[in-house]
Design a protein that fits this description.
Elements: H1 2-30, H2 35-49, H3 57-71, H4 79-85, H5 94-108, H6 120-131, H7 137-202
Helix pairs in contact: 1-4, 2-3, 2-4, 2-7, 5-7
Amino acid sequence: MDTDRGRDARGPMTNLGRLTRYRLIIPLKRGQMPPEHVARGVAVGLAVAFTPTVGIQLIAVFGIWALARAIATRFQFHLVAALAWVWVTNIFTIGPIYYTFLLTGQLMLGRFDELGSIGFGTFTAQLTDVVNADSSFLEGLWIGTLTLFKVWGLPLFIGSIPWAVGTAWIGYVWSRRFIIRFREARQKRWARKLQRRDQHDAGGPPA
């Protein structure tokens, strides 16, 4: 019985880990573009993810991608990687992340007397109402963004800026290093396989 309960408890975390790996890590491993190109995609995805633009994040990524292709070719990025890393802010993480934006914005604006005036529970309840607003798709995207600004004002948006910039920079540095190391390790594995095959064909001892 205890074993079954342990398996049930680990199930959601295991599934989340697999989903995270599938959505975030696999696109980095499969890409054939230069590491910098893919890493810029991760940076753009994180920058958009860490802004209070729920509902229009994918559209924003597409817009930035199209703009980069049209007028800033040196800043082009991997679209699939960008779209994948927007998922960092999802239904499971949006509440804590946006609440952190609000607190950060209140600190940046010097509104110390308002710090924590809205409890986390109240905030998440209001956020759920905004996300689940009953309207058409396009209207819902527009209303959702306007409502976020109307309900929580400038602190929410100002507070997202350092997080967007910081996570984008960290994402670029980390993903570029990860891709380079992964490809180097893959090349070494291929080289060892070719060496063993050549030695086998030549009748020599295995490496």
